[in-house]
Specification:
By secondary structure, this protein is an alpha/beta fold. It folds into three domains: 4-60 and 136-227 and 448-465, Rossmann fold (3-Layer(aba) Sandwich), CATH 3.40.50.2000; 64-131, no CATH class; 234-444, Rossmann fold (3-Layer(aba) Sandwich). Helix content is 40%, strand content 13%. Helix 14 links the parallel strand 13 (356-358) and strand 14 (374-377). The radius of gyration is 23 Å and the shape is globular. The relative contact order is 0.12. This is UDP-N-acetylglucosamine:LPS N-acetylglucosamine transferase. Keywords: Transferase.
Length: 466
């Protein structure tokens, strides 16, 4: 009899990995009965024809946001003390004192932080959160769905969504095994593990070590290295267009060489538009010396700020905007959802650009899959003022310590060096590709093309031996 797996989407971030790749077809070919347990407003049935069960009750406990903020800060406090490292406070967002209501909430959060900032305190705080979520109507609603459909396992596509807590608790209380996929390469040190499940699937040995390091209540036999489906499309040659096809479709000049500028979200790089402007100036200077260059600007899919508009409008002869093919189905960042068509666009942007430039983005790995270099900007802009975040902070984060050397990216530490670095890469005299491939292997595991298959093999193993 086929094993019935609920692939659980608490929010939209997992759609790219687990709905728009070959993940489903691989699982079905291995004999699994797959149902998408869908907490998002994106209909998998209507849009993709998938078998889905919608979660219509989205109730969380009124105190959950307060307790979640306290949990995150308490965990970061423990990490700072335990590892004697001041990087952890830099992951914190500032407290909100705007108005009486927000001030009272902040005071309550700070009281909880003071009470629970220890390893034992965090366990108690997590237990309190679980108790709150078990009292919600959503918990009862999800429990009834599980009792009706009786899945053999619930596979949660991200560990970071508070919307998943009550649903996973309902599964565990019914004796249904639960798995959480750790969604992103930087998530573990940032105290973004919201859920506690029976098993955790991670990208790499590095990420497994981190889960065990930061969460002592998780045991080694609960954590499995599977890789991530995130990069699988880059190895799917069926997505490849000829340069002529791609350039014609998107209005690019076939006589030009294009550099991709990959935009960041406003939190990561609040002055990002000025780095784009710096690249424009470098390109103009090089074009004046005989090059024929253009820029493909691909924005961060969840950035809706107008901050780039002035630079783009003033430089239309140099910049071609190729927006990601994502759909906004709600007002929150996690309700901006990718489409399958964007895989094809991103594949070909990587394939037909000379290289990529950005501020500390994981797109470095998308491009290295196509043997393309990356420049990371690492200098302050003159527009930096008090209250604006310095992008240099990003490179001090824990996940950047996984770099095998500083040559895993081409770091531009001074604006005046940018033109020379661009020229050296174009001439083939400078590249980070080989060292970056080592870094990619450290971060994403040894078999980036086999992640979906490995996930299903691991699920099968767990269900066979339990």
């Amino acid at each position: 009899m086929k094993k019935k797996i609920f692939v659980f989407f608490p929010d939209g971030v997992g759609l790219r990995n687990f709905a728009f790749t070959d993940f489903k077809s691989i699982g079905e070919n291995m004999g699994f009965d797959i149902t998408y347990w869908n907490n998002t407003i994106f209909s998998l049935k209507d849009n993709l024809g998938f078998n889905e069960i919608k979660i219509e009750d989205h109730t969380t406990h009124p105190l959950l946001p307060i307790y979640s903020r306290a949990r995150k800060r308490a965990e970061l406090n423990v990490s700072r003390t335990k590892f004697k490292d001041n990087v952890y406070p830099t992951y914190k967002f500032p407290f909100n004192y705007n108005g009486t209501k927000n001030t009272l909430k902040t005071l309550y959060v700070k009281w909880l932080i003071g009470l629970y900032s220890s390893e034992k305190g965090i366990v108690k705080l997590r237990a309190k959160i679980n108790k709150l979520e078990r009292s919600t109507s959503k918990y009862k609603y999800c429990k009834a769905q599980l009792e009706q459909h009786k899945p053999d396992m619930v596979f949660c596509t991200t560990q970071r969504a508070t919307q998943s807590i009550s649903a996973l608790l309902a599964a565990q209380d019914l004796g249904i095994p639960t798995v959480a996929f750790v969604y992103s390469w930087d998530n573990v040190p940032k105290a973004m593990q919201v859920v506690e499940t029976d098993y955790y699937f991670v990208w790499s040995d590095l990420m497994k070590q981190e889960v065990l390091k930061y969460y002592p209540f998780v045991k080694e036999n609960q954590v499995f290295v599977t890789g991530t489906p995130q990069f699988e499309p880059h190895y799917n040659s069926a997505l490849k267009q000829t340069k002529e096809e791609f350039f014609k479709e998107h209005g690019l000049d076939i006589s030009k060489k294009y550099i991709c500028y990959s935009g960041d979200d406003e939190t990561t790089s609040p002055l990002d538009q000025y780095y784009l402007e710096d690249l424009v100036n470098a390109v103009r200077s090089l074009n004046g010396k005989g090059e024929n260059l253009g820029i493909i600007y691909r924005k961060c899919p969840v950035d809706f700020t107008p901050r780039y508009n002035v630079v783009i409008e003033a430089n239309k002869d140099v910049i071609t905007v190729l927006d990601p093919i994502w759909k906004q189905v709600g007002k929150q960042w996690n309700q901006v959802l990718p489409t399958p068509e964007d895989f094809k666009m991103l594949y070909n942007v990587c394939e037909h650009s000379e290289f990529v430039t950005n501020v500390c983005s994981s797109t470095i790995f998308d491009f290295v899959a196509h043997n393309k270099p990356c420049i990371y900007y690492n200098y302050e802009q003159p527009q930096l003022r008090k209250g604006i975040r310095d992008i240099g902070q990003n490179y001090k984060y824990v996940h950047f310590r996984s770099m095998p050397s500083k040559k895993a990216a081409v770091f531009c530490a001074d604006k005046k060096d940018l033109e020379g670095l661009v020229k050296q890469i174009l001439d083939g005299h400078l590249s980070n590709v080989e060292i970056c491939k080592e870094w990619f292997k450290t971060v994403a595991g040894n078999n980036p093309t086999k992640a979906s298959e490995t996930i299903w093999d691991t699920i099968n193993m767990l269900l066979t031996t339990k």
